[in-house]
Amino acid sequence: CIGIMPTKTKKKAAAEGKKAAQKKKDKMVQDKTFGLKNKNKSKKVQQQIEGVKKSVYNSGDPKQRKAEEDRKKAKVAAKARKKALKDEQDALFGEALLAVQKS
Hints:
Helices cover 80% and strands 0% of the residues. The protein is mainly α. The longest helix has 41 residues, at 62-102. It folds into 2 domains: 8-59; 62-103. The chain has helices at residues 9-33, 43-58, 62-102. Helix 1 (9-33) packs antiparallel against helix 2 (43-58). Residues 1-72 are annotated as: Disordered. GO terms for molecular function: mRNA binding.
């Protein structure tokens, strides 16, 4: 029986979607900064361009941003729970293990 590998269309589609979104954001930045005088020399203009970039790149779907934030919080909480469990186990069984090793 020959196993058939599933296609990777979902991953490719997601990657292409991200690339397309990034290109779209780059295009928006170019459009918003078009025509600025002394783009490469003036410090104030550079700061304005950075502000535009930040606003464009950080804008997006608020639901998606919130989901990402929730996922990060859950990851941190899980890590804290795991560390607390390990500390508790060390406190409970650490003394017993040390006593066994000394004997």
